[in-house]
């Protein structure tokens, strides 16, 4: 089932700003030469069998940054297919470099707004997992409305995850962790995987990023939240 245009939520506030940054020669080369191989157009609903040539568990990573974590997950789980969604072209270019270097065939990429892709392109009850690792916390109170994890986002998760599928978020900003815990816990279609109904230990499958490792050395906290669709 796909939402018709008249059913789509009105979305005036975005959770990101397009900071394109500097593109390296390698990233530019990858964007030019590998785009058609790995990147998908948002114009049509996603047909996973046509795209991946098989039916396998489908996992989504929203805002994959430079894509290193996504590439590691795809390499470690060849039996799963992955969708990466990222608006910043340098990060997309970096991931395309990794995919080509490692010969990974189980990853496809959208360079587009994640909410629009989930709403328009992904079928309901089709996702095995949604990952959101270190999203922009929008520190200032006046910018909290830009945070991606809001009740409307949780509503979308509950629609798109299959039964037993999970949402995994990680953040190094405690205030955002508390806000996410509150809004996720409020939806009775999702169950907290934490035995204490709070946060989870970092699962072995989630790679440590360089940014995270540096923060841990400095004594910064990291909070993982995992919620499973009933």
TrEMBL record:
Domain of life here? Answer: Bacteria
Check the record and name the CDD domains matching this protein.
AdoMet_MTases
- Residues annotated as binding substrate are 140, 172, 209-212
Q: What class of enzyme is it?
A: transferase
Q: In which pathway does it act?
A: tRNA modification; N(7)-methylguanine-tRNA biosynthesis
Question: What gene is it encoded by?
Answer: trmB
PROSITE patterns xrefs: SAM_MT_TRMB (PS51625)
Recite the UniProt keywords alphabetically: Methyltransferase, S-adenosyl-L-methionine, Transferase, tRNA processing
Per its UniProt record, what Pfam families does this chain match? Methyltransf_4
EC number of the protein: 2.1.1.33
Q: Which family does it belong to?
A: Belongs to the class I-like SAM-binding methyltransferase superfamily. TrmB family.
- Write out the GO MF terms: tRNA (guanine(46)-N7)-methyltransferase activity
Q: Sorted alphabetically, which InterPro entries does this protein's record hold?
A: SAM-dependent_MTases_sf, tRNA_(Gua-N-7)_MeTrfase_Trmb, tRNA_methyltr_TrmB_bact
Question: What does the protein in this record do?
Answer: Catalyzes the formation of N(7)-methylguanine at position 46 (m7G46) in tRNA.
Residues involved in S-adenosyl-L-methionine binding: 61, 86, 113, 136
Q: Which organism is it from?
A: Methyloglobulus morosus KoM1
Q: Which GO terms describe its cellular component?
A: tRNA methyltransferase complex
UniProt catalytic activity = guanosine(46) in tRNA + S-adenosyl-L-methionine = N(7)-methylguanosine(46) in tRNA + S-adenosyl-L-homocysteine
**Name of the featured protein:** tRNA (guanine-N(7)-)-methyltransferase
